[in-house]
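Support reply, case 0932

Customer input (verbatim):
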Amino acid sequence: MRSGFVAIVGRPNAGKSTLLNAIMNRKLAIISSKPQTTRNNIMGILTEEDSQMIFIDTPGIHKPHHALGRTLNKSAYASLADVDLIYYMVDASVPFGSGEEFVLNQIKDKSNNIILLLNKVDLISKDKLMQLILQWSKRANFIEIFPISATEKINVDKLLDISRTYLPEGPMYFDESTICDHDENFLISELIREKIIWRTQEEVPHSVAVVIENREDTETKTYIQALIIVERASQKGILIGSQGKMIASITQDARRDLRHILGRRVELECYVRVEENWRNKESKIHQFGIGEMDE
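Our regenerated output:
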């Protein structure tokens, strides 16, 4: 069989997590319109009759402004080591600029097997797409330039077919029933963080971490206590909301999705605590489970 590892890299908001979910045909990675939503490398394992492809969704590469940003970049760069393919994902609807040039310079010499994915082609004309393919072909030696739409699943199956041809003959690295390298508690904490991102104001999402402090399972019910970490008292106030309405809405949103994912009744309690300037404290970043794959 053919088997191998594929790193999905690119700028924040390029659509990497959406692509992983489209490939796996299920939700493994949280998504939002806000940059730096993904904070950990997440593996999605796609096992088929004659192949096993391990996709690594990574945090968006960017110019970091604090320790958390440096940790996110480190996680993305670590994914490039010893992979068989790199998907370099670009938002085709956004003009090429210094941010994209920064990412390209970080990865173009890391591998000879880079497939450029021009994502969100459903938002541009065919003439514009042809211009982009010509422009990008001059910027680096890509083995393929592939137009896709992760949201609409345009060309995703064709991408997988092409990718398999570049994978070596190899073993099955994971049991065929394994679809993700993280446990359920990680996925639960990420889902809660997704609801916070969607519900709260611009200043809050980047400053939030979620830790599962307690979980108890029975045959019919799962009880979860989740701690939400923020950097400032004002952010705690936003999260709790007037008369606790915001935290109640977040909890309700998360509980509804968790009930569907876990297949049983879910009781969820969320608490908020202030840890001042935690994004600049590496000990706190790792304590909260961010970047643990790099240790």
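We compared this against your earlier run and they match. Two observations from our side: Residues 127 and 133 are 10 Å apart (CA to CA). The first strand starts at residue 2 and ends at 10. Please reopen the case if you see a mismatch on your end.
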